[in-house]
Design a protein that fits this description.
With 305 residues, the protein is an alpha+beta fold. The protein has one domain (15-303). Helices cover 27% and strands 26% of the residues. Strands 7, 10, 11, 12 and 13 form a 5-stranded antiparallel beta sheet that branches. Strands 2-5-1-6 form a 4-stranded antiparallel beta sheet. It binds protoporphyrin IX containing FE (HEM).
Amino acid sequence: MTSPQSAVLPDNSRHASFVTLTLKAGQDAANKLRAVAARVPALSDEIAALDTAAELLSAIAFSAEVWATLGLATRPAHLRGFPAMSGHGHDAPATAADALLYVRSARPDLNFMLTQAVLAELDGAVTVVEHIDGFRYLDSRDITGFVDGTENPEGDERAEVALVGDEDPDFAGGSYLHLMRFVHDMNKWNRQSVHHQEQVIGRTKTDDQELDDDIRPETAHISRVVIEEDGEELEVLRQSMPYGDTTRAGLMFAAFGRRPDNFERMLERMYRGELNGTYDHLLDFTRAETGNAFFVPARGFLERL
Ligand code: HEM
């Protein structure tokens, strides 16, 4: 298996930075992005060596629209845009971004060093859309107070779920990434009883147990995103991180997949639900402000750019 970029598979870090970028017009800018992207793994390794215990990891990813601009001969089989959708008064918008720089470690200063180094090398070829610093909250909880990431695949299954394999050999070791920034309405959330919050998520709050089928509503988040097909559960590898300050806060949702389809199916069931009008009631307490789809090429592919 061709190695993925370092930030794709390992478990959540304590701090992460998500920097979305748009490419400026012109061939020079495109050439610069290509050349600098190829150097991201090396730049990352250099800074990681300053403190190996901090486990600095990185990935750079490209949108479907920018792929052609970069002048690459072949393209990942399922690379496409973010599936914007609306339903029941809730929107999942597709927003602008050509590339993502994703950096994480136990040290925000090292994350800062790497994002600064990459942006300095890009030297004006891109515009930063947004730079979001995420943090691990308590014992890996979302700021709603619920543990996030429990049912993520583990061990070898992480690569199985997240990485392209022999079905698209030129892109093996790459990954389809969906990124959404959600802003939570914490005042509204905090006014709900813990019982109601548990009905919205579908798990218990303190000890993170899944509610039994007979007491878990169809509108619970878990009920919406657990989809079985031919006896198998559809899976993605989530690397989401809380972010925020006193003015706005929420979840930077990030999901890696071997194909984009599983994520798209989950999103559809959250927003559009089914004919009977069922949608994910978590959406009554959070709003998606951004939505992007990227491909994260394998490390080897990137270095040959
Ligand atoms: C504000 C946004 C979101 C919040 C706060 C949130 C929170 C949670 C929480 C607390 C869990 C339960 C613990 C766990 O297994 O991780 C969970 C599970 C999960 N979420 Fe979300 N989530 C959000 C958005 C999404 C989106 C957009 C998707 C996909 C389209 C998604 C897919 C999943 C999946 C697949 C699971 C695991 C279900 C299982 O196997 O039991 N989530 N989420």
